């Protein structure tokens, strides 16, 4: 069969490096979003701060500051969504022109592999870019939902609807940020997948390096230490 013949175009090291890339990308998400209680990730800490933000939002006057923050978040997601669309369009344009693709491959590797090999490698990058685009678009929409819920919070802090609606806005905000972070991780690993154009070893190194960088930022970074400084006090306040 044709697909079996295409499978033989890649070595065992290629499949090992690809497995490291995909498994690292898939497994880092649950670890980051559901970390051990004793060692929270930056994403988990920021989720608590987002909830705290919405509690203060109820009594803040005026609330223009909060709307500006939501607007900035939507601009960030829109920027990355647009960048992902450009990357997807550029990838498909490159795949559609086999001559240019073959020339780029020869310049990078000095090899003569069939064009289908380079097309498959580019399809991997396109897969990450497409996933990132979908995550950013959904995050952008969720931040819009959050803005509507914030607008629905009564101006009177004593209203029985004030804090429940603020809590709903907080959870939508956390969900939007989660989708945004997943989109960023797709971008990180999508960039790492570009190393496959150079060969299996570069892909393996890039995938491992990317995974280590992502995990370091979530669990051992200086920003995490800053967020931890008053996290216990904030947790007691929530209780």
What does this protein structure show overall?
- With 239 residues, the chain is mostly helical.
- Helices cover 81% and strands 0% of the residues.
- The protein starts with a helix and ends with a helix.
- Structural class, by secondary structure, is mainly alpha
Shape descriptor:
elongated
Percent of sequence in beta strands: under 5%
Radius of gyration: 22 Å
Low-confidence stretches: none
The H-and-E topology, N to C, reads as: HHHHHHHHHH
Largest sheet: none
- What is the number of beta strands? 0
pLDDT average, as an integer? 88
Termini distance?
62 Å
Helix content: over 70%
Count of discrete alpha- or pi-helical segments spanning 4 or more residues: 10
How many domains, as an integer? 1
List the helices and strands and how they pair.
Elements: H1 2-7, H2 12-33, H3 42-59, H4 64-95, H5 98-109, H6 115-151, H7 162-193, H8 200-219, H9 222-228, H10 231-238
Helix pairs in contact: 2-7, 2-8, 3-7, 3-10, 4-6, 6-7, 7-8
Concise account of the structure shown:
With 239 residues, the chain is mainly α. The chain has helices at 2-7, 12-33, 42-59, 64-95, 98-109, 115-151, 162-193, 200-219, 222-228, 231-238.
Key phrases:
single chain; 239 residues; 10 helices
